[in-house]
Amino acid sequence: MAFDAEDELIADRPKTKPVMLRNWQQVVEKVDFAFQPIVSPHTGHIFGYEALLRRWEDAGFPSIQALFDTAWDTGNLHTVDMLLRAKAIKKFARMPDAKRLKLFYNFDNRVVRTEDYQPGQTAALLADAGLERDTIFLEISERHDISNADYLKDILVRYRSQGFKIAIDDYGSGFAQLRALYECEPDIIKIDRFFIDGIDRDRRKELFVTQITAFAHMIAAQVVAEGVETREEFLCCRRLGCDLVQGFFIARPSVELPERTDLVPVAADIAADTRRQSDRDDDVVRSYLLDTPAIPSDINPVDILTYFQQNPDITLVPVVNHDGEPLGVVRDSEFKAFIYTPFGRELLQNPANRANIKRFLRRCPIADIRTSLSELLETFVATNALDGVILTENGRYLGVLDQSALLRAVNERNTLNARDENPLTRLPGNSAIYRYAARALSEPRKRRFAVYFDFDNFKPFNDRYGFRQGDRAILLFKDILGKALSQNDWFVGHIGGDDFFAYVQSIDFEVAVEAVQRAQAMFDAQIKSFYDQETRDLGYLIGKGRDNNVTKFDLMSVSAALVRIPPERTDITLDHISVEAAKLKAIAKNSESRFASGLYDSPCAPLPVSGK
Fold first, then answer.
1. How far is the C-alpha of 197 from the C-alpha of 306, rounded, in Å?
2. Which of 385, 413, 441 is the last residue of a domain?
3. Residue 604 covered by a domain
4. What would the DSSP string read from start to end of 570-597?
5. How many angstroms separate the CA atoms of 377 and 205, rounded?
6. CA atoms of 472 and 465, how far apart (whole Å)
7. Distance between CA atoms of 195 and 190, rounded to whole angstroms?
8. pLDDT digits (tens, 9 = 90+) for 531-586
9. 463 and 575, same structural domain?
10. Residue 471: CB atoms within 10 Å
11. Within a domain: residue 347?
12. Which residue ranges does the record assign to the EAL domain (predicted)?
């Protein structure tokens, strides 16, 4: 039997005399559940909610852990867990559109070792609440040792066979081994908040999350970044390929049920603000997406065989649940054996096969349609995904991107980018800048800033040291902009020569100014090494001016003109901003700080300016 290992561990279960059931019922009546949303960083749409226990102190416990430890010590952990599970499910079912959402419930690994353990009750609780079995994700914390628990693996297999989902919680915080994760086949891996805290400033954490995300996608699991508390962490997690995010930056847990469960505005706004490259990738991917019709998970296996016989060009077919969410794929090769056996169709008609299509189901990497092509390619290579990648939109099946389609999409994207890139810096060129600005300026935002950068004393430097060294100075500034402006997801373009353009929205004016002046200071410090020692010692370069006379030129620097764009205006164009930026740039070049800012009003109105 598959579950004999569980019986062997009966001796490990606590033998303490159970507490009276009515006392635990009173405890559960006093506690409550708060719900925290888990959202897509690509769209801001809500995937589900984690149920978090609250008001345990009202029941006389100093902590959540103390409540569960007491239940364990008294031999009632399973009873208590089922009472709490019933309460969480019942409350969750009252949410708007609950049937579309997922419920994440923390599962204490010790439950399966209690004397009162009785499997099979969760399905009944969900049915009573009008919810499907795949609504619930049982979160197994890595903080408890799961690496050698064969009985736990067997229990998870049983939960899976019943249609429940599995999530590994707190990944990176405890005992879990890759083998355990591989054997448990989790649907979701939640990365511990320690690795998310400050990830935008910690290269080692970034590398860790990158590797875990790649591993998760390799086993067709999705990744949730826990504990996201800042915009910068949010953007970093999305850039690294995390499928979902959760944390105070998105929303704090609340015992009050939400009024809307479609999306979280703060995440949706950022997704809309930062959709530049993904929009282009989105368009390209959609044009190559294989619109392979999906089949429902309750289909008769004989009908799948007929499907493949009628569609010989299709080698795999996605399988979706009742909500259109992909579960995996079924390959034609799995059914060919039945075609060539005398009783193939009879075998497929076997009640065991008809009742459980999962024996033919194979896992496949899943990604949101707004995932960049670079990330899709990395997932494809890391997983050796011969079947391709299933793409979804707002969690629902959209189509399949196979190997051939993916390579063609990447090639087209690269071709399109090459047309719009500056050949030296590979930054968006004039066409891309105008296209981006037209879209960004057409959307009213409370805070929007455009910045023009222009080198000072570039020509004398170029004349003295040659155009190759001049190109290196331009590339230096390009790299500096990437570092100085990275935290708030600026758009950066290269107009040409030594002129650069940057745009950002949804951040404070002071934050924008600080980022711009940080870039200027970094260039001042690093460009000195491009001059010879004698010139560095002098602090200026001696060369010929435009009148061909010998002149002293200051070392190269960068002037910046920042235009504050009025909120809610949608009639402003990049040409309007360029005119005002030219005025500000003249002011900046004559100021000590080489910086000037002003609020754009209209082409004819006076422009308030300030230099710092």
1. 52
2. 413
3. no
4. ----HHHHHHHHHHHHHHHHTSTT-EEE
5. 22
6. 11
7. 11
8. 999 999 999 998 776 667 778 899 999 999 999 998 878 888 888 899 899 999 99
9. yes
10. 13
11. yes
12. 13-267
* Phi and psi angles of residue 132, each rounded to the nearest 5 degrees, phi first: -80, 160
Same domain, 403 and 431: no
Contact criterion met (CB below 8 Å) for 274 and 489 = yes
Interhelix angle 231-239/265-273, nearest 10 degrees = 60
In order, the DSSP letters of 322-336 are: TTS-EEEEEETHHHH
Residue 4: band (very low, low, confident or very high) from pLDDT cuts 50, 70, 90: very low
CATH of the domain at 137: 3.20.20.450
Residues 313 and 350 in one domain: yes
Segment 507-526 shows an average pLDDT of 94
The mean pLDDT value of the chain amounts to: 82
- Which pLDDT belongs to residue 588? 95
pLDDT digits (tens, 9 = 90+) for 44-89: 999 999 999 999 999 889 999 899 889 888 888 888 999 999 999 9
pLDDT at 355 over 60: no
**Chain segment 257-275, per-residue pLDDT in tens:** 999 999 999 988 887 766 5
The helix or strand, by DSSP H or E, that contains position 303, with its residue range, turns out to be helix 301-310
Alpha carbon distance 541, 547 (integer Å): 16
Instruction: Kindly state whether residues 233 and 372 are assigned to the same domain.
Output: no
Strand bridging mode 102-107 / 136-141: parallel
Residue 439 Ramachandran class (φ > 0 left, ψ -120 to 50 alpha, else beta): alpha
Instruction: Please indicate, yes or no, if residue 304 is contained in any of the structural domains.
Output: yes
**Count of structural domains, the chain:** 3
- Per the structure, the complete domain to which residue 246 belongs is given by 24-262
Asked if 315 and 249 sit in the same domain, the reply is no
Q: In this structure, are 331 and 477 located in the same domain?
A: no
Residue 163, pLDDT above cutoff 80: no
The candidate with the shortest Cα–Cα distance to 245, out of 264, 260, 223, 261, is: 223
Question: CATH code at 407?
Answer: 3.10.580.10
228, 262, 296: which is the final residue of a domain?
A: 262
Which amino acid, residue 456? Answer: D
| Residue spans of alpha helices (H) in 421-448 | 430-441
User: Cα angle vertex 429, ends 425, 431, to 5°?
Assistant: 165
Closest CA to 103 of 22, 186, 165, 40: 165
Pairing between strand 550-554 and 540-544?
antiparallel
Q: What is the largest CA-CA distance in the chain?
A: 100
Question: Do strands 557-565 and 136-141 pair parallel, antiparallel, or not at all (unpaired)?
Answer: unpaired
DSSP 316: E
Give the pLDDT mean for 182-209.
Answer: 86
Phi, then psi, of 310 in degrees rounded to 5: -85, -20
Strands 326-331, 366-368: parallel, antiparallel or unpaired by DSSP? unpaired
Shared domain check, 514 and 467: yes
Q: Is residue 606 part of a domain?
A: no
Chain segment 602-611, per-residue pLDDT in tens: 554 444 445 5
Specify whether 525 is located in the same domain as 445.
yes
Q: Which of 559, 564, 558 is nearest to 601 (CA)?
A: 564
For residue 33, the model assigns a pLDDT of 97
pLDDT tens readout for residues 308-317: 878 877 878 8
Tally: H helices and E strands in the chain: 24, 22
